[in-house]
Specification:
Structural class: alpha/beta
Number of helices: 9
Length: about 350
């Protein structure tokens, strides 16, 4: 498994403060593209996927999302109902693979983005491995007897397509889809140990629709969409049951979603954009050895002088001596998205402020 999704005991260390600054800078480049960056895509195609025997009622909400992609963003949208009954000599997985292959052949290209949206049931296999990604349509019969597909065996076709790929999955244990991932990006409803929220009004898909509609086709990164979901997930209007998960590509920067021009005269003028969410992520990093107070102040100075001006919210919050040097600091959600694959950095919590003990009283 190439992506860490659960806590573990052994800790790795950054060699020094300069290395930490370098890691943060790289995460900024990938999670917070330049404010004048624009989507590079000439073609964006979306495949909406659900089961023909769906018992969750996902189709109305899926249709709403499809309309947003088609009408607001000018994306090409197709729908696939995974069949439960197939002709003799064929299989459900074989039919699904044939559909995926044709979608890739039709839309792949160096300036193409392909988006796969799945809504339905999923199973992650037995704990503690959670190494399966089984999709199925109904809980009315036992899973062993239910038509099903293992996404891990099907996504090879979509993973290697020419262009960029984004997976949007509203299902239980959704992050299992990213096990041994390749150079693609994921925005999913739940971690591999968690189910997804069952209420339509507060579902992952409903929240995604709300964010896309509010943005009205303007440039917005996938990391920013995820940050908006997380920072507002417990507000009165959203009240999501489980924390959505973003998993970035190993090397590529985050994908920018933007309304496609229907013709050359419709191309939008390049404009600055900053869609960072208001909240932050409190994280920790361990460094080899024990730094002195002046060293920590020097680290803060490096942060101030080396961070781009649009990322002023990277801030040291606390420092401790332990078996090494433990530093707590806050970063934007979009930056954490590309640090969490580094085992030296640890998630602490989502926060809305800096360290209140050292803040200036009002």
């Amino acid at each position: 498994m190439s992506y860490q999704t659960r806590a573990y005991l052994n800790r790795t260390y950054e060699p020094n403060f300069r290395s930490v600054v370098g890691q943060i800078n790289e995460a900024i480049k990938r999670g917070l593209p330049d404010a004048q960056a624009q989507s590079k895509y000439r073609r964006v195609a979306v495949l909406m996927i659900h089961w023909s025997n769906d018992d969750l009622g996902v189709v109305p909400l899926e249709n709403q999302l499809a309309q947003v992609f088609a009408k607001v963003y000018n994306f090409t949208v197709e729908t696939y109902n995974i069949p439960t009954i197939v002709p003799p000599g064929r299989s459900v997985a074989g039919e699904f693979l044939w559909r995926l292959t044709n979608f890739v052949r039709t839309y792949e290209g160096s300036q193409s983005l392909m988006i796969y949206v799945y809504s339905g049931h999923a199973d992650a296999g037995a704990a503690p491995l959670y190494d399966q990604c089984i999709w199925y349509g109904s809980n009315a019969i036992p899973l062993a007897q239910c038509p099903q597909v293992n996404w891990a065996t099907l996504r090879g076709t979509t993973d290697v397509a020419v262009g960029d790929t984004l997976y949007i999955l509203d299902c239980c244990y959704a992050s299992t889809a990213a096990i041994n991932k390749t150079e693609n990006e994921y925005l999913v409803a739940a971690a591999m140990e968690n189910p997804a929220g069952g209420a339509i009004q507060t579902s992952f898909t409903q929240r995604l629709i709300d964010i896309l509609v509010a943005n009205n086709g303007d440039p917005q990164t996938v990391t920013s969409i995820h940050a908006s979901m997380v920072s507002n997930m417990k507000s009165a209007n959203t009240n999501m049951s489980y924390t959505p998960i973003h998993i970035g590509a190993d090397v590529k920067p985050t994908i920018i979603l933007q309304r496609l021009a229907k013709s050359p005269k419709d191309i939008q003028a390049v404009k600055r954009f900053d869609t960072r969410a208001a909240g932050k992520v409190l994280i920790s990093v361990s460094l080899q050895g024990k730094a002195s107070f002046p060293d920590i102040r020097q680290f803060e100075k490096w942060l101030l002088t080396n961070m781009p001006p649009n990322v002023a919210s990277v801030k040291v919050e606390a420092a401790f001596h332990s078996s090494s040097q433990l530093i707590l600091f806050t970063v934007p959600h979009e930056v954490w998205a590309y640090l969490e694959g580094n085992e030296s950095f640890r998630f602490v919590d989502h926060v809305d402020s800096h360290n209140l003990l050292f803040s200036t009283p009002p």
